[in-house]
User: Fold these one by one.
Assistant:
Number 1:
Amino acid sequence: MAGDRAFWEEIEGRFRRAAPEADFHSLRVVRTRSENLSVRRDVVQPPSLGENLGAMLIVHAGAGMGYAATADLTEAGLRRAGEEALAWARRSAPRSAVDHAALRPPDARGECESPCAVPWDSIPLAEKVDFLRVQCGRLKTGARIVDWEAALSYAEEDVLHLTSGGGGAAARGEGRRARAPGWRRPPRASPPRRSSCSTPPTARRGGWTSSSIPIR
């Protein structure tokens, strides 16, 4: 997350200024970038790019706990979410099965980043598409196959967690998923608490899906 440090420091500053007055509060911000490539019926499909950014605030007030999610990461947006979480915490306090006032969440600081031997962007787009063309061609094993597709998906996730006691943790991870036989490059790297996986190719015969068609 070093390249985006100014962005995350700005988010932290907004949160510190907008945080509600409560026994405890925390903020978890998640940003996910994704890219999807596919070849269906031997035709290259339009690539898709995505980016999601949002936050979850948790507030303890007495015995109660409340939370609120928002995609508005401006100072005003974080303040509004904090006020909503605080209101829910106060409402739940008389009925809470857990005494949140007795909890002492940790306030550690640190950073971690999943290692990646071969970055996704280091492989040219043309090479990925050419690979998918070959693999897609291998899926058409007979006349009964009416629909076939090979695909590659990539996701990069940044997570920032802040607490009212000054704690802060940042993490970055990458995940890759292949739906095609033989994909070995690049090596996958899994983000914290999330695993990437490889699924078998799928082809549809006459309207039903099967993943047990032998491919050699």
Note: DSSP finds three helices and nine strands in the chain.
Number 2:
Amino acid sequence: HSASRRFVTEALIAAISAMGIAAVGIALWIYPTLLGRNVATAAPLFTMLFVVAAVRALLEYHSELLFAMKRYTGQPIVNTTNAVVKLTLLYGVLMLSPVLSAGSLNAVFAITYLVSVVMTHMIVAPPKPPSLGLRTPAMTSSPGSAA
């Protein structure tokens, strides 16, 4: 139940972020200089970066979730890991390709999200009681019989 609620919450955050970037892209398609002439040259990029916008919002959500759940040590660990993963992947993409494509940028952010969601939900999940491998012996004899 809790996992499905988190999934729905994350899907809604991603959808709202994607719709926001789509709205900006549509507005710039209709009025390219709406945000100034400098932004007009980059306007086509807005519509190609749905994943980037959604993942940025989701990474912020993960950070806030860890804080709200009082996982104070998990928050900097997840945030630092996200930064290292994103930096490493961006470095690799930039070194392998002279042109940064929207697809490669979206892939970098999608992989960063996957790392973040796995780490965050592992930290947020309630701890399972430790299993020591001990089993209680089964009653093999009836109460009245001699052992």
Note: The chain is about 70% helix and 0% strand.
Number 3:
Amino acid sequence: MHQLPTVLLGTANHVYRTGFAACMQQGNNYQLVNHTNSYTHLLQLAKLHQPQVIITSLHPAEGSMAEACLQLPQTDSPPAIIILSVQIRRLQFEECVKAGALGFMELNDDSDCSQAAIESVIAGRMYYSKAQAEFIRCLTHGKALLDITTPKERQIIRYWAAGLTCAEIGHQMHLSEETIMKCRKTIIEKLRIKSSEVIGFAFQNGIAQWEEQRVTAPSRA
């Protein structure tokens, strides 16, 4: 008798979990060996069942999705991992891929998408749902743009995202206000974005953090 590829699901989203389980029962292509809303339980089930595919949005309380991938039991035939996420930042995406993730889906993707994802990762191919593909394309585009900026320009972008004026950035970097104004113009031309889009670009691509925005921006009288 032909053995169906085995799938383990881990997500705290009850609606997705029960819906996915129902779809697996209706189809005959894959066997859902178990599902859980607990990361600790997911690790135990992965060791017990040794599934071919793990679909998960669960991670350690103090850890990342990449760490979650790395902590999965190591077997002779490691499972193909599909990450469930709404949006994933560029650095997190790269870390997840390095940790072994092959697929990226959203919680609102339908059963056809899930089946396509499972088929792809079992064959050893990367898979992105339509929404994730567009988001990752933007991230990759952002990374390519970062490669053409200098360290000084990235530092200016950080201060810019923190809300500093040209004069304040100049004071922080020991440069004149005029130099900073010229650099900001160069940055906009290089990135081919509007000045109003620089802050979003900085946060999306990991140049700036929300904590930095609170801490770095000086108080003004």
Note: Confidence is low (pLDDT under 50) at residues 210-221.
Number 4:
Amino acid sequence: AIIVFQNSAKLGSGEATVNNAALDGLIALANAIKNAVVIGGDPGQYPQNAVDTFGGAISAAQTVSANASATQADIDSAATALQTAIIVFQNSANLGSGEAAVNNAALDGLIALANAIKNNAVIGGDPGQYQQNAVDTFEGAISAAQAVSANASATQADIDSAATALQAAIIAFQNSVNDGSSDIGGYSDYTGGDGGCDAGAGLAGALVLLAGIAATRMRKRKRR
């Protein structure tokens, strides 16, 4: 839903935008999760090889984000790969005997990212802005993800599915922007409008903070 929402922004005539805000938000989330874990063999800890593999996935995503020649397809692919890596990593935590860990940190981080994107979007008919119906649809997708995260009976499969759906929404929404710069509603790398780069810095800072909060959230349940 995030991707669909970002792709709904009206475009300028004959222009194309490469937007890496969603990828950068996922990188911030992934780093926050990695930095919050404890390496070891006890329940709730993570094996060193899982941390190393996850670190490699983050580095690969950072390389794509920093590549000035990367296409939107490259960025979207990197974002999808990193989201998959986040889910795989969180599911690699050591379990105690007779326990099943349900970890919604990735989903909560994506919800924070989606809300940050939505709150920075400008509704209107000009290039770089977003249509009201797209915002309404996006809010519905965020609400659906929040409902899964708050559901104490949700399984890990439910949470992973909700995270994947929300990540797909980020990419689709992102690809809707086209004003001749790397801009989504006035943030990211955009320099042609009011407050572009400053807003981007503020969004990045908010994502790091929210991702850090999300990275601490894990609940464990007994296997049924």
Note: The chain is about 60% helix and 5% strand.
